[in-house]
């Protein structure tokens, strides 16, 4: 079993090396795979915590979600002449 495990680890390493060779970011690929292994509730909890920490690190400044209308009212203003 240990030999099989070692062989599989080598196969995985080769896949990541091939992906890196064609321009993929292996660190991000590993993160995506770890997220896909989680169940939906755990993933949502982790995303919520990440959001809270990012908010704290940025000094309480959060970007406005798309579609909130902030900054949209003036779009196109002054374009008509």
Please characterize this protein's 3D structure.
There is one protein chain. Mean pLDDT is 83; it is low at 71-81. This protein has 3 helices and no strands. The chain starts with a helix and ends in a 24-residue tail after the last helix. With 81 residues, it is mostly helical.
Poorly predicted runs are 71-81
Order of helices and strands: HHH
The major beta sheet can be summarized as: none
Shape: elongated
From the helix content, strand content and strand pairing, which structural class follows?
Answer: mainly alpha
Query: What's the overall average pLDDT, rounded?
Result: 83
Would you count the extended β strands for me?
0
Strand and helix layout:
Layout: H1 2-21, H2 26-37, H3 40-57
A few lines on this structure:
The protein has 81 residues and is mostly helical.
What structural keywords apply?
mainly alpha, 62% helix
